[in-house]
Amino acid sequence: MTPPIVYDLLVEGCILIASAHEAPVLDAAIGITGGRFAFVGRAVDLPPGATAAERLTLPGHLCLPGLINVHTHTILSMVRGSAEDMGFAPAYTPGVPQGHMVTEDEAIALARLGACEAMLFGSTLINDTYVHTDLTLPAMADLGLRVFSCNRIHDVDFSGIAHGRWEYDAAAGDRLLEQAEALAQRFHHKPGARTGVQLAAHAPDTCSPAFLRRIAALSRRLDIPVQTHLAQSKVEVAHIRERDGMTPAELLDDVGLLDDGLVAAHCIHVTEGDIARIGRARVNVAHIPKGNATGGTIAPTRALTEAGARLCLATDNMHADMVEVMRWALCMGRIQRGAVEDSWAPEHMLEAATLNGAAAMGMAGELGAIRTGWRADLVLADLRRPHLTPHQDPFGSFLHTGHGRDITHVVVEGEVIVRDGRPVRADLETICREGAAAAAALWARAGTGR
């Protein structure tokens, strides 16, 4: 007689959306063994006698693949509520705490605060970049989520950017490339780890053309893709036009970075030629609808995707709610057409936040769906709350009226890392207190530029 199956974790009783374009499964069961999905389907179809070391019985909950945030800066939670009303990104804004001001301890405290926020809101993988990443990457990963990270790579002197000065320093660029390579050797796809690296070329205007070519060469040598900001501001576009006589997208193409491995954040100020170029290259566009709208801008996502770009979603800085991002992305796309169309629907936003994000992070076929054999990352949201009742269309209700704070449980690689809305591996109050103290210290120093 065959002994009954014993899963490491069994999630049951929920409404399952196994992937973006699949119909919901009512009263579902998900069995996980060895960090991978071993059973996905209806509870009544579980193998006879199946049991588990741990069970989550969650009727009235919606189960989704873990959300993948392909572009964020966790430390920049330090400027939330302030920088949004200053008109542009913090790195270009006088009077705002800057990356070169952040101490190691402050970086760790703020990064853990931002990563915890993202995790509580349903992100099971974040792609983060800023400063002190040799310390912040493991500090964030210790919370249990997947973390890709890299120091921002540039050869500009960032202390002058907020004052309109672009001064390039080859030696500084050399140091940052060396740090990025060392980070990759230490953390990229190590067995048993939940960490990775994407080389973070900061932006076309903060990297000289020669330096961008060196980043492209390092990417090829290490077989590690690149992420960057692209056409995020009129300032960037004007500077590249003056410096190089081309658009930012043309520059990235010229130096060998515009390809299907690139994660390009924003893509707002692009010409029709840029859109065609980005589409032909099958670039992963990290769409940041809420952050862009806060600054009065909108990326031409409909044109970009129709040209061939892959739409992915991200929060960038100052908030980490990917559920809200899906809603904003849906609405912004509809505004561009002035219509509701079947080709731009809630399930397409879920695809952007899961399967497309996994592909952009080099993990297609591993993450982004709840499928037998895939890595066991999932989130569960409580649909019994007033704003989610009734829910004839469970995911439609969640996208249009839900929030990250409706997520109650998060599972990564089969481990429950958020339970009943609380992090399992860390004390939430301590994370918030230490993050707030770090931000206060930075704002106190910002006026002096130290």
From TrEMBL:
Alphabetized Gene3D superfamilies for the sequence: Metal-dependent hydrolases, Urease, subunit C, domain 1
Domain Amidohydrolase-related residue range list: 64-416
Pfam families (alphabetical): Amidohydro_1
Keywords in alphabetical order: Hydrolase
GO MF annotation: an example: hydrolase activity, acting on carbon-nitrogen (but not peptide) bonds
Similarity field: Belongs to the metallo-dependent hydrolases superfamily. ATZ/TRZ family.
Protein name: Amidohydrolase family protein
Taxonomy of the source species: Bacteria, Pseudomonadati, Pseudomonadota, Alphaproteobacteria, Acetobacterales
